Amino acid sequence: MSTKTVWITAFDKEKDAARVAALSQLLKRYGLATQGHFWVDDPEKLAWRAGLDALNAARADLWLILADQASLAKPSIRYGLSVFAASLREARGQGFPIVLSGTAGVESAPHMLANATVLAENNAVWPAKMVARANLVKPGEPIDYRFEVVGEEQLGQWYAIGPREGEWQGVVFGVHGGGARIDFQAVGPRGKLPEKTVLEYAQEGLTVQVGEREFGAWAVRNRLGPDDVYYARVKGVPESMLFMPYTDDSEASATILRLS
């Protein structure tokens, strides 16, 4: 059996360095290799993306987040962790193992990490559970859509959304909170931003009201299949996002994801 690699994310280099070193040595004794990074809290420059790219380049088998309650309380960090997790699972599968580990448990995890395993480091079985999660990947909950965030500082932050199966007759996409706004949209093949795009019946400046939340939305009527993606460039750090296949039905069902 090949050695499994755990990717460790910590938030405070000065405070967490000893913790990372100790846990790395502990996991090594249980046959797990470790790599990792310290979090950079700058979501508008997609700083979280460097950690995700490094994790994927290392072909890590598990993402271990060393929880820090002060850090997890910050909306910008919660947002970064959310889009990191969504993009990781889109690249590596919905069942990719994620562990939130705290010295005495974890009080509040971002909504997009609700399915992560939560472990307390002061529990004697912590190492054994880490080995089990790294070696026994559980299938993730099936979802009928794709969602990830792509791009980099120069290109900007792009949300990539589309159907996993079947066909959508277009897309309505909106963002709420955090000073977020959409400033460009495109449609193209899954996997990379299109160099050019032709939009059908494009709409901008829409408002979608859901309860007390108001989403600034854009829309197109391009048909999307499993190999097609709707791309929206988003400025700011939205608290939540909304999307749904385009329809003329005013009572249509939408997917809403909390991001911070």
Tally the helices: what do you get? 5
Helix content: 10-25%
- The coarse overall form would be elongated
**Helix- and strand-based class?**
alpha/beta
Regions with pLDDT < 50 over 5+ consecutive residues? none
Q: Largest sheet, if any?
A: 5 strands, parallel
Report the mean per-residue pLDDT as an integer. Answer: 92
Q: First CA to last CA: what distance? A: 38 Å
User: Beta-strand level of the residues, as a percent range?
Assistant: 35-45%
- Tally of extended strands? 14
What is the C-alpha radius of gyration, as a whole number of Å? 19 Å
N-to-C order of helices and strands: EHEHEHHEEHEEEEEEEEE
Main sheet: strand order: 2-1-3-4-5
Q: What keyword list fits this structure?
A:
260 residues, alpha/beta, five-stranded antiparallel β-sheet, 5 helices
